[in-house]
Every structure is written in C-alpha cells, then in structure tokens.
Amino acid sequence: MYRPAFLLLVLLGLLAAGCPQPSAAPPAGASSVGPCGVPELNQPVPDFAFTTLSGDTQQLADLRGQVIVADFWAMLCLGCVEGLQAYQADPELSSNPRVTLLAFSTDRSQAAIQGFVKEKGWTFPVALATDPVREALAATGRLVLPEVRILDTAGRLRYRLGAEQATHQTVKCLVDHLLGEEQTP
Predict the structure, then answer these.
(1) What residues does each domain of the chain span?
(2) Each residue of 131-170: pLDDT tens digit?
(3) Which of 71, 104, 112, 176 registers the highest number of CB atoms within 10 A of its CB?
(4) Long-range contacts of 132-135, Cβ-Cβ distance < 8 Å, separation of 24 or more
(5) Average pLDDT over residues 64-91
(6) What is the C-alpha separation between 36 and 178, in angstroms, rounded?
(7) pTM of structure
C-alpha cells in the first residue's frame, strides 16, 4: 500500500511536468524587442491542417487576414487553464471577428478534453496538438507549456510567449498592436 505522502509527491511531479518553466533567453530568431517588451520574431509558419473538437477541419492559411492567438495547453497545467479562462471572459479576444483564438490541447484523450471544455464553458475553437501540428510548428521553435504563439494577418509568427510572458494583459497588448498595424496606411 502506498503512503499518502508518496502519492502526493507523484501528483505534484506530474503537475510540474505539465507546466515546465521556459528559459529566460529570448526565442531563437528574435529580431528586436517589440511592443509590451516581447521579442518580435517575424518568422514564416508552414501551413498545416487541424481539426477542432467539433469536427471542423481547417488549414492555417484559411485564417489569413486575422490575427491568430494559438494557445498550447494541457488540462493539468493550471497556468494554461487560467489563461484560457481569461480569454473566454474577454469579448475583445473571444468575439472579435478580426481575431481567431485557437486552443491546441497537448492532451491525448479527445473525450476527456471535450468534457473538460464543456465543464469550463469555453466557446472558442479547441483542437488537438496532433503530430502534424507539432511538426509544422517545430520550424518556429520547441513547444513548452504554457505557450502562446501570435501570428499576424499575413500568417507570420510575430510573438512567442512562455509561462512568464503569456499573461492576458500581454496577449491583449500584442493583439491590439497587430490590429493597429492593419489600420496604419
């Protein structure tokens, strides 16, 4: 029989493994520090297909013309879930027709993810971070949870935010900046 203290240590280890901390170094390929103190990348992103939990299949290229907030998360990553809750509560992010929020779950059980999303009441698209999605994004750097990647309206990766930077306030600031670029002649 296992002792409760041992089980607690195992559980804490699993939770920590779901949310590793990023390094303090700026992402590879960062050209300059952009708005909100976040390094600006301006990297091409290969096109890839993804399927949402509702069964809709899309190509990343189909979303050109919109700012894309791609949030990579896991059910056991509390920071990931808190960030997604903040997006859901912000109509400027969750309901803006010029912004697409995509939540890519790194969990493997589609049924478990669907139950979790329903329980949380999230209305934005949720998809699995399948191997093809991960392979396409490997060109823009290694994925660490929680992580948010923000693409501009041309489909280029402009910002990559790790745990310390991926706050609701920073994401909103960067999205507003990219939307403002579209207004500038």
Answers:
(1) 29-183
(2) 999 998 888 888 888 899 999 999 999 999 998 899 999 9
(3) 71
(4) 132/48, 132/49, 133/48, 133/50, 133/104, 135/48
(5) 95
(6) 12
(7) 0.82
